Amino acid sequence: MNRDGNRGFGMGDGKGRPQDGAGKLPPWKLRPRGNAKVAKGSEGAVWLDEELKAVADLRNDKAREKTGQYLVEGIRAVETVIDRAKENLVAIYESEGLVWNRALLTRSPGKVPVRTIPEREMELLSSTKTQQGLVAVAISRSLRINWETARRVTLVDAIQDPGNLGALFRSCAAFGFDAVVLGKGSVDPWNPRAVRGSSGLIATVPFEANARLEQTIEFLRNKGFSIVGTSPHGKGTVDNLDLKRKVALLVGNEGKGASANLLDQCDTKVRIPMVGGVESLNVSVAHGILSAGLFARE
């Protein structure tokens, strides 16, 4: 897949891609300079300068929307983004004494600034209680979907939990999906928990966000896709699917599943065989099982 040719670092266009003209500077450069901020750490008051305060703000939706940037947390996630999407990185922050694979920074052209900070300050950048001492700021830029070559697509109907969405992206990367389309009402894919749940792989899977899935389904059908809904009441399994056709797999909300009107648009509905007494699985687990089933049959 070719990376989106849009090189701007600004606000998204509603499909996970930034527009030109904004966000070309690190997040702290977009804020007026002023006095350092005081925040509460695990051992009392901790002073954050304007740079670190802006990084910590990326935990919030409004700051990510304003800057067109997002927070990558954890050693594996940061190393994945360095290795697979280094051009999106703005800056990296490490705790004093942390050991990680810094050699990744020299494997491809371009420099990414690395700042070492005390662990107490690192605690305030992370959205987790058990932070790993490594975070990065990256541009909220997804890969563009190539609809001419795509054969496996996941459609997401209003998943609310960012951890579930992150795990879904991880499964898509693991099992060779060409694209993810997020319907309106789905959680922000750049949420720190979603990014962490994907182990940074969200930067490697082409996706679009805020889509009208009814229209997307018709578009995919015209492209030769078989639209497959997931439902406990489905009559078939992935073993029954015709893999000579392109497949779009629809997964739904944690509590309600995919909406009835979308399921009605599907060509077929599949279920996961389970022992009696278990009604359903977590949506990301179910998606992983179905994705593995498709992958194994190819």
Describe this entry's structure for a reader.
With 298 residues, the protein is of the alpha/beta class. It folds into 2 domains: 27-139, 60s Ribosomal Protein L30, Chain: A (2-Layer Sandwich), CATH 3.30.1330; 152-297, Alpha/beta knot. The chain has 9 helices and 12 strands. The strands form 3 sheets. The protein has a 6-stranded parallel beta sheet with strand order 9-8-7-11-10-12. Helix 5 packs parallel to helix 9. The longest helix has 15 residues, at 283-297. The radius of gyration is 20 Å and the shape is elongated.
Q: Briefly, what is this?
A:
It contains nine helices and twelve strands. With 298 residues, it is of the alpha/beta class. It has two domains: 27-139, Ribosomal protein L30/S12 (60s Ribosomal Protein L30, Chain: A, 2-Layer Sandwich), CATH 3.30.1330.30; 152-297, Alpha/beta knot.
Layout: helices, strands, pairs:
Layout: E1 37-41, E2 44-48, H1 50-57, H2 61-67, E3 69-73, H3 75-85, E4 89-95, E5 114-117, H4 119-125, E6 134-139, E7 152-156, H5 162-174, E8 179-183, H6 192-197, E9 207-211, H7 213-222, E10 225-230, E11 246-251, H8 260-265, E12 268-270, H9 283-297
Parallel strand pairs: 4-5, 7-8, 7-11, 8-9, 10-11, 10-12
Antiparallel strand pairs: 1-2, 3-6, 4-6
Helix pairs in contact: 5-9
Radius of gyration: 20 Å
Number of helices: 9
Largest sheet composition: 6 strands, parallel
| Average pLDDT over all residues | 87
User: Which class of the largest domain in CATH terms?
Assistant: Alpha Beta
